[in-house]
């Protein structure tokens, strides 16, 4: 699978608010599927499982089975790869531009004809 396919899966997974909410729920600690279902009472178990399947397909959630329990763990690496590829470089340039603007505005001669 190409890196483009992986990125597409991550972007698709992150496009749904419910899936982002599930990732937020997993941010602090792994949870069982039952615990996640309890956190989202408006959704039935089947719907939660469908969202988890998309997240697992994007490698954002790693599933470990212990007996009858299915533990869902957040895998932040795909999000970091998206950040590194798409956000980091752009954010760096934006910060540089803001720093230049701040410096220009703070110079005593800025805005005055010489």
Based on the model shown, name its key terms.
alpha+beta; 5 helices; 12% strand; 3-stranded antiparallel β-sheet; single chain; 114 residues
Give the SSE map.
Blueprint: H1 3-14, H2 17-26, E1 31-32, H3 33-39, H4 45-57, E2 61-66, E3 69-74, H5 77-106
Antiparallel strand pairs: 1-3, 2-3
Helix pairs in contact: 1-4
Describe the structure.
There is one protein chain. The protein is α+β, with helices and mostly antiparallel strands and 114 residues long. The protein has 5 helices and 3 strands, in the order ααβααββα. The chain has helices spanning 3-14, 17-26, 33-39, 45-57, 77-106, and strands spanning 31-32, 61-66, 69-74. A 3-stranded antiparallel β-sheet has the order 1-3-2.
First-last Cα distance: 60 Å
Give the integer mean of the pLDDT values.
90
SSE sequence, one letter per element: HHEHHEEH
Amount of helix? 55-70%
How many distinct helices?
5
- Largest sheet data: 3 strands, antiparallel
Largest sheet: spatial strand order? 1-3-2
The percentage of residues in β strands lies in 5-15%
- Class by SSE composition: alpha+beta
Q: What form results from the Cα inertia axes?
A: elongated
Please provide the count of β strands. 3
Contiguous runs where pLDDT drops below 50 for at least 5 residues: none
Radius of gyration over C-alpha positions, nearest whole angstrom: 21 Å
């Amino acid at each position: 699978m190409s890196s483009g396919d992986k990125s597409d899966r991550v972007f698709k997974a992150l496009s749904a608010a419910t899936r982002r909410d599930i990732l937020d729920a997993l941010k602090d600690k792994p949870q069982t599927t039952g615990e996640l279902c309890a956190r989202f009472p408006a959704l039935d178990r089947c719907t939660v499982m469908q969202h988890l399947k998309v997240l697992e397909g994007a490698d954002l959630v790693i599933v470990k089975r212990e007996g009858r329990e299915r533990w869902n763990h957040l895998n932040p690496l795909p999000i970091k790869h998206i950040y590194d590829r798409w956000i980091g470089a752009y954010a760096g340039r934006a910060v540089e531009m803001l720093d230049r603007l701040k410096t220009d505005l703070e110079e005593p001669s800025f805005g005055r004809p010489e």
